[in-house]
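Exercise (ungraded).
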Amino acid sequence: MSPETIILMAEDDEGHALLIERALRKTGINNPIRRFRDGQEFIDFCESQAGPGCSVREAFVLLLDIRMPKIDGVEVLRMVKNSERLRNLPVVMLTTTENPREVDLCHEIGCNAYIVKPVTPNDFTETIRSLGEFLRKMEVPSLAGVS
Amino acid sequence: MTPPASLSETEKLLLKATREVHDFKTALDEHAIVAITDPRGKITYVNEKFCAISQYNEEELIGQDHRILNSSHHPKAFFQELWQTIQSGEVWRGEIRNRRKDGSYYWVDTTIVPFVDSEGRPVQHIAIRADITERKLYEEELAKLAAELDSKNKELETVIYAASHDLRSPLVNVQGFASVIGEEMADLKKLVQACANGETPELSQVQAIEGEIERALDFIIAGTTKMDALLGGLLVISRLGQLEVRDVAVDVGRVVEMNLSAMRYQLEEAGATVLVEDLPMARGDADLLGQVFGNLFGNAIKYSSKERSLVLKVRGKDFGDKVRYEVSDNGIGISKQHQDRIFNLFHRLNPTDTEGHGVGLAIVKRALDRMNGTVEVDSEPGRGTTFSIVLPKSAV
């Protein structure tokens, strides 16, 4: 992942957001992070001029929680993958449930990865480290079609 | 009895045949509900069982058609199909719900056989019926139980969903920030070690570690508090499911009045104007209804608009065998796209703006389910919200 890539994080829980950011930084991912407190905030951002696909110079990746107020993550994922402009935005589901039905649904809609937030100590850092690895290797396409 | 010797062979055969038919009829009358109608459907014969089940006597039935027993249960098309079948000379079979003279209902498994004369013209219809009321009641009971089971299952799924998402969420914080403290402690140990080696650590370094540990502790405490509140909410919902629910006449006006008086302080503080119309009685459980109105009033206060003082209206009206109550406010409102999820357990629309754990409306929904009632929401952002509650009407 290039250093210019902006990490978008849709996460309603203040603590989770801090833990994710802290763990990412610890694994050496120092990309800018932009946080949204619910699905609606993220959708509003996408529809604004600053959103993904608006500038050829900016690349984005989305870390998406599922259970959020207003518009939940599954709905956000569906909106992203159904949008001509946002379809190529890489989406990593980062959530508390491992309910197979939900995992399958997200893969079906087209998420790029599905990560369960672990609740046991140390696992969290470990998981984020692997997310870091994943992000590092990830080729983030420019949504405007120019890489 | 042997026939007299003076009878001819033909007469003897005829007599034997008549006796056989008579025996058949006696046996049939013992077993079945029998009626005969003319081609236009007028009743020309009924047996004793027919009279017994319908509670009409023979004189009341002869000359009438079967509409006298109509229970309004079956659609018009049902009887049209019946008539088309027997008029085309075919046997009709089916299950019919009829109404007795006293207005109660009974179900009969029915076979109607049309008879024609030698030229093919309809002469009469013989209908043989069996009482299946008890079986039908069992079937209805079974269908009701199946529906209840289905709704219980759905509810259980919602609770499991809520538990897997929402209860794990604070746990992630507790464990995650406990690890943070561990990491910070390791850094602190290094500093202590450095001190022991005669080095002087930067004050800002120590302060940064202190700050991280304090923040982590705050998140851990908030996480356990949140879990406790969520478990409390889960317990309330689960108790609602087990509770013995009364099904009696409830003075809803009094329930509303008691709730408002218990909330007088909060209402006054919100500068609320409360308008309560005369409310009809309902059938249900007064305690559960108290919880329903309490939660709705609480929400009206919680989600009132900062731009205008709260106006809370409660009204109610009968319609058919039900009563509808409306609780309206002029608060911040809920946009259409979010309305279907507000009754979900632990669901919150504005977690940052208001206190709460997303249990109140789940209680409202669950309590009304238990009283065979329903709740719906109608709302417009910036204008206000109306909750409509429907309950069975009280006979009193």
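Further reading is listed at the end of the chapter. For now, observe: Helices of chain A lie at 14-26, 39-47, 73-82, 100-109, 123-137. The domain at 6-137 of chain A is CATH 3.40.50.2300 (Rossmann fold).
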